[in-house]
Amino acid sequence: MVRVENLSVSYGSKQVLDHLSFEVKPGEVHGIVGENGAGKTTLFESLVGFKKGYSGSVDYVPDVQQSIGFLPANPPMITKITGSEYLKLVLLARGIDRDDFDESNIFDLPLNSYADTYSTGMQKKLALLGVILQGNAFYVLDEPFNGLDYQSCLMVIDILAELRTAGKAVIVSSHIFSTLSDSCDYIHFLKRGAFQHSVGKEKFSEIEAVIKRELIRDSVKGLGIR
Ligand SMILES: Nc1ncnc2c1ncn2[C@@H]1O[C@H](COP(=O)(O)OP(=O)(O)OP(=O)(O)O)[C@@H](O)[C@H]1O
Known about the structure:
Layout (H helix, E strand, L loop, with lengths): L1 E10 L2 E11 L4 E5 L6 H8 L7 E6 L7 E4 L11 H10 L27 H14 L4 E4 L8 H16 L3 E5 L3 H5 L4 E6 L2 E7 L3 H13 L10
Parallel strand pairs: 3-7, 3-8, 5-6, 6-7
Antiparallel strand pairs: 1-2, 1-4, 8-9
Bound molecules: adenosine-5'-triphosphate.
The site of adenosine-5'-triphosphate (ATP) has 11 residues, from helix 1.
């Protein structure tokens, strides 16, 4: 459904993504984990067409390109519109005219309040709700767990499972490995713009140990805590 081949992105002389190749099929959830600055957001923006000027290719099954649900790491909010109005607006972008969100308001958001007065976590949940209700075919979710309380994180894990069952293709990033191991079919460890490891479910625990070793080593010992 979505095939990425040799995707490379540079900012000036700095190469940020280095020949990434992978494929996301319907009913698959792919997780991306990597340290700050590894290139996750750059990858996601390239996938959804926000970032041009990359080399390599991003190919979709034709009807999928019009049906991408992108949750940015920091979803932009429009001022002076309520949560309900926000949802109505993003659904209208997919030609869906809908006013009643009571049953879909699974995060108990104050939908009659202005969305720009929501907390960071509430805005993230509203934006996530919007892309899910749009009924897209391909979901690109940049840190959907970030800023969410524990209960909402569990709900997002459930949402990812539902998307898989519904045959959607999903790519999701997180800094918390366990959120990905609970929800993904494949995990890709992105390091300095390249996939250092790409593994399926059966190797998640093995790879978690490897990633921990590669990322932190004994650096905390340098604090000399006694
Ligand atoms: N507009 C830009 N101009 C120059 N360099 C940029 C630009 N945007 C991102 N970068 C650099 O590209 C690299 C990857 O950034 P990116 O935001 O994709 O990382 P990330 O993995 O999403 O990080 P984080 O986990 O902190 O959100 C970083 O080194 C960053 O400084």
